[in-house]
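Audit log entry. Action: structure prediction of a protein-small molecule complex. Ligand: nicotinamide-adenine-dinucleotide. The ligand was supplied as SMILES and no pocket hint was given, so placement is left entirely to the predictor. Protonation state taken as written. Sequence taken verbatim from the request; no trimming, no tag removal. Recorded inputs:
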Amino acid sequence: MDAEAIGRRFTGKAGILTGAASGIGRAAALRLTAEGARLLLVDRDEEGLKETVRLVGEQGGRAGGAASAYAADIADEDAVRGAVAAAKDRYGAVGLLVNVAGFHKVVPLEEVTLDYWNRQFAVNTAGTMLFCREALPHLAEGGGVIVNTASTSATHAHPYMTAYAASKGAVLAFTQSLAAEVWGRGVRVLAVSPGGVATPLTEAVSFPEGTDGAYYARITPPAGMGRPEEIAAAIAFAASEDGAYVRGVELRVDGGSHA
Ligand SMILES: NC(=O)c1ccc[n+]([C@@H]2O[C@H](COP(=O)([O-])OP(=O)(O)OC[C@H]3O[C@@H](n4cnc5c(N)ncnc54)[C@H](O)[C@@H]3O)[C@@H](O)[C@H]2O)c1
């Protein structure tokens, strides 16, 4: 990468980032726009989205970055089509797709209802798939990149999170296979798997009475919980030309918790 481009890795690039109203998605929106990306920010939380857009504005568009909000439920197929069309209309291209939106609950298996299981998959897995499918023709026009968000629970035991872990395992399997499917069309696909990161998602976690804490003690990161900005930095690497040789893999960013 030539020296001029350092810190401006997304200047001239446009795309979509989901989950941008909070936590890791908001941090990624700030990081990518700081480096020049023009992004349609998607989330179902309208107020949170407005705040992210305000923060992007406050940061300034030094490298040409900008953001606009699109409120939508990522599990709604029509809404996803609408978001992709809006990004193309607004920015003329969709060269980046960063899927961060997702939710999580701690639920012992006996309490996992079919409705909850289906909703976990509809949002975390199908929502990711829908954005990839709908954005693919645009991404293939100009050497695009997809970064999906899995989790350490995709590959490691996380008790009381069976539905969530299964939905993220599916995101990872989907990502790997998609990477090989679209490689020849010039689209690079990979996943970032965060470990424990301090966001509203993890602040809401409480374990059932009698939970064996020994497992969680073993996977507590030596350096403490991660910060959303640390995951955003990895997403920025993954989505940028710096990550051009990284394809079809899971980039685990977990502070060593699952080493
Ligand atoms: N925080 C962690 O420790 C951690 C670890 C591993 C993976 N992750 C994953 O990272 C991603 C971001 O998590 P976070 O910690 O920033 O959580 P967060 O709750 O702070 O942010 C998640 C965002 O996704 C949005 N969202 C949820 N369901 C949606 C839907 N149906 N449609 C549109 N938007 C929706 C929420 O409104 C929210 O703004 C999630 O996919 C999560 O599973 C988080």
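Audit: result stored. The pocket of nicotinamide-adenine-dinucleotide is lined by residues 19, 21-25, 43-45, 48, 73-75, 100-104, 123, 149, 151, 194, 196-197, 199-202 (CB under 6 Å). The two ends are 31 Å apart (CA to CA).
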